[in-house]
Amino acid sequence: MKNKGFKKAAAIISAALLLSITACGSKEDPLATLEAALTKNAQTNDMDMDMDMDMELLQDGVSIGINSEGNMQMSGASTTDMLYVADMDVEMDMDGQSQSVDTVTFYQDGYCYMETMGTKIKYVMDLNTMMETINQNTGLANIDTSYLTDLTLKKEGNEKIITFNTDPSKMNEYVAQAMGAVSGLMDSNNMEMTVKKMNGSYSINQDGYCTGTDIYMEMDMVVSGISCSVTADIDITYNNPGQPVNVSIPSTEGYTEVDISAIQ
User: Fold this and answer.
1) How far apart are CA 73 and CA 108, in angstroms?
2) Which DSSP string corresponds to 127-150?
3) What does the pLDDT look like over 174-202, one tens digit per residue?
4) What total number of domains does the chain contain?
5) For residue 133, what is the domain's CATH number?
6) What is the DSSP letter of 250?
7) What range defines the domain where residue 247 resides?
8) ∠228-233-236 over CA atoms, to 5°?
């Protein structure tokens, strides 16, 4: 009887200890963990990022689907020898008809090169301006954490998954700028956006780097006086964060130099 009572007490104590250990582990601050990971990613000089964005625009019963996917690579971000290349394919589907546009953009030796639809142009761009452009183009992965709410953290294998919601009222201007930068098609001065919903998740590996983010948005948009509702699913993956990236720059032959104001 005494042994049975002892075993029962031991089981209760073991369960209580396990519960307390689990509870302690769950107290890791999701916001602090996320901010540390984003900071760690931002401090790397090299980047290899895949992006896949599915958007649906609905206006007066007409639906337009837009899929943008591609890869961005950068090396030597903090040096004058910075190299950058982005290969993006945008496919638009409307009334069963689709059109695809592939754009390759790269930076080398103070010039930004762009090839799309058979046209090749290059224009002078200083390094600081180019870095600002790159940061805008990857801005959806680096949301100001003060906008995030309801953060939770859970572990899946060797990764930590942080989920979040946002305060839509704080996201309108930020998302308008970010979406305009990513698409290259929207003039933020001629666009109004009202974010109705935005949530998502971040993945953080065992080395403390952010390996990706998934974001879902619902919004109302007015562009050049045309109103529509928009949903967007954005999936961003950072490949081998913290590791060197060997950026392969395409040939610079056949590009026509233009004034940057001509393409803005």
Assistant:
1) 13
2) HHHHHHHHHHHTGGGS--GGGEEE
3) 665 555 544 444 444 566 778 899 999 99
4) 1
5) 2.50.20
6) P
7) 30-263
8) 140
